[in-house]
């Protein structure tokens, strides 16, 4: 697989708070600062895609209560309750799809997960192209049995296409790979392909 480009990642979104070889959880440094579903991120030498976003209280024993009965809009709630920024957090669930060994990208699980508090960065277009250069990255996503796995896989492909000079050609190439991988599950294949802008990418 191609080497990782030397182009730096574009932005840091948070840090790892839970880690296994297959899945990570990252807390965003900014409330509501999560990247979109399917975005490729890097934590140390591990590449993962955003497979879920949750905003919840920092203290689970203090549930969120409605505060906007008299507010004109949502922004007013936060202006009048600035403490909310310190009482809530946004977490990102991440599915590991690859890792780096030196300058090479390996489209399979790493030997070890990143450490807790490892910074998480949204990947640069160059990193996206390097990770998605080989079709193996799809294996982990397609093997997931989560109810929303097809949405995550399709969102990942749509996000990855934006990093390519010819996004339609990229989507058509990976659509063929998905077709082979899901040849025995035509309903699931059709569900994923319907989520891809193959005609307009």
Strand content: 25-35%
CA radius of gyration: 18 Å
Instruction: Sum up the overall morphology in one term.
Output: globular
Structural class by SSE content: alpha+beta
Query: Residue ranges: pLDDT <50 for 5 or more in a row?
Result: 1-10
Mean pLDDT: 90
Most strands sheet: 6 strands, antiparallel, barrel
- Give the % helix: 25-40%
Instruction: Tally the helices.
Output: 7
Strand order of the largest sheet: 1-2-5-4-3-7
The end-to-end span amounts to 25 Å
List the secondary-structure elements in sequence, H or E.
Answer: EEEEHHEEEHHHHH
Oligomer: single chain
Number of strands: 7
Integer count of domains: 1
Structure notes:
The chain has 201 residues and is α+β, with helices and mostly antiparallel strands. The protein has one domain (11-194). Helices cover 31% and strands 26% of the residues. It has helices at residues 74-80, 84-87, 125-131, 137-143, 149-161, 167-181, 186-194, and strands at residues 11-19, 23-28, 40-43, 46-57, 88-101, 104-106, 119-122. A six-stranded antiparallel β-barrel has the order 1-2-5-4-3-7. α5 packs antiparallel against α6 (167-181) and α5 packs across α7 (186-194). 30% of the residues are buried. The model is unreliable at 1-10 (pLDDT under 50).
């Amino acid at each position: 697989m191609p080497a990782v480009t030397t182009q730096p990642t574009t932005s840091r979104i948070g840090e790892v708070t839970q880690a296994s070889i297959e899945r990570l959880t990252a807390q965003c440094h900014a409330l509501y600062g999560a990247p979109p579903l399917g975005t490729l991120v890097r934590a140390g030498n591990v590449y993962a895609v955003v497979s879920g976003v949750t905003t919840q209280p920092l203290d689970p024993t203090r549930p969120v209560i409605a505060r906007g009965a008299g507010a004109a809009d949502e922004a007013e709630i936060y202006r009048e309750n600035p403490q909310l920024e310190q009482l809530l957090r946004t977490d990102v669930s991440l599915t590991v799809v690859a890792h780096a060994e030196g300058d090479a990208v390996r489209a399979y699980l790493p030997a070890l997960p990143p450490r807790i508090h490892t910074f998480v960065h949204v990947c640069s277009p160059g990193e996206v192209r390097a990770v998605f250069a080989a079709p193996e990255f799809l294996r982990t996503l397609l093997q997931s049995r989560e109810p929303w796995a097809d949405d995550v896989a399709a969102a990942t492909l749509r996000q990855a296409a934006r990093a390519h000079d010819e996004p339609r050609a990229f989507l058509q190439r990976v659509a063929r790979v998905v077709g082979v991988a899901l040849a025995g599950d035509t309903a699931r294949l059709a569900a994923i392909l319907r989520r891809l802008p193959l005609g307009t990418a």
